[in-house]
Amino acid sequence: MASCMGSLLAETKRILRLFNIRPRKKLGQNFVVSRRLIEDLISFSSLSNHDVVLEIGAGIGSLTLALADVARKVFAVEVDSRLVKVLKWRLKDYDNVEVIQADALAIEFPVVDKIVSNLPFSISSPLTFKLIEEPKFRFAVLTYQKEFAERLVAKPGTHQYGRLTVAVGLFAEVDLLRYVSRNCFYPPPDVDAAVVKLTPKKLESPSEVEEFLLELLKWLFSQRNRKLRSPLLHYLTKVRGLSAEECSEVVRVVPYMEVRVRDLTPRQFIEIADVLFRRLRIIEGSELSG
């Protein structure tokens, strides 16, 4: 507990008072007040003076300063104009930091070596999908809510296993590095946190199959406790507009139809998507030519 408190907490409160800032819960503003956590984020990232780094949700710059002391270049993204003023004030003597005032979900990220961030918990899910779908980095070291982090590394068949687990697992290697007490942040969030490392990987399937699979997962996990047959038929009829005869043709070739969605592994989802994508192209292609 002691490592999460102390001078950095006092410094954070002082800066917030100086700029008359109250943290906004809806923006997920929980600032790191643990020097040990900052040191761990730097260590887990294996930073060097050759690295170009992206920080998302830079806040008042406590992590940014530590990154700037090591990295060659730091892009610090922050949406809150109040905090941007703080960042520019604290980083005025650093010529290797570029502060970007923007919504991280709305901008195109620069190409970097690594991403190191205490992520705003409020945008964890959409931001994670944005990162893995548009990988412009070697790996990312990120703080998440503990429950969210555990969903990322959940095993098939568990209650935490879901669309998020499969999608992220398909596109990235996921490692849960350490748990973090909520008291390492100010104001403390309602839950504990965890540090996760995401390393993008390339699927063997074509990118169009990847995109198709992401769409398909939404439908399949809407009925996660049903056997694959049920949500898949629902998708084929409601979304793709297939006839009963065409659905029967698809069912005959798609594997794992009698396995419950929650029990399918990421590799099995790839097999399903690959077969289904090719079969739908044949069916829909013949309809267009006819």
Attribute tags:
290 residues, alpha/beta, Helicase, Ruva Protein, domain 3, disordered N terminus, SAM-dependent_MTases_sf, RNA binding, rRNA processing
Structure commentary:
It contains eleven helices and nine strands. It is an alpha/beta fold. The strands form two sheets. The chain has a seven-stranded mixed sheet. One of its GO terms (molecular function) is RNA binding. Belongs to the class I-like SAM-binding methyltransferase superfamily. rRNA adenine N(6)-methyltransferase family. RsmA subfamily. Specifically dimethylates two adjacent adenosines in the loop of a conserved hairpin near the 3'-end of 16S rRNA in the 30S particle. May play a critical role in biogenesis of 30S subunits.
Architecture of the largest domain in CATH?
A: 3-Layer(aba) Sandwich
Query: What is the count of DSSP helices, taking H or I runs of 4+ residues?
Result: 11
The level 1 CATH classification of the largest domain is Alpha Beta
H-E order: HEHEHEHEEHEHHEEEHHHH
Oligomer: single chain
Q: How would a textbook summarize the main sheet? A: 7 strands, mixed
What's the overall geometry?
elongated
Rg over CA atoms: 22 Å
Q: Count the strands?
A: 9
Low-confidence stretches: 1-5
Spatial order of strands in the largest sheet: 4-3-2-5-6-9-7
Average residue-wise pLDDT:
93
Look up the CATH topology of the largest domain.
Rossmann fold
Helix content: 40-55%
Strand percent estimate: 15-25%
Overall number of structural domains: 2
Distance between the termini: 70 Å
Classification by helices and strands: alpha/beta
Q: CATH H level of the largest domain: which superfamily? A: Vaccinia Virus protein VP39
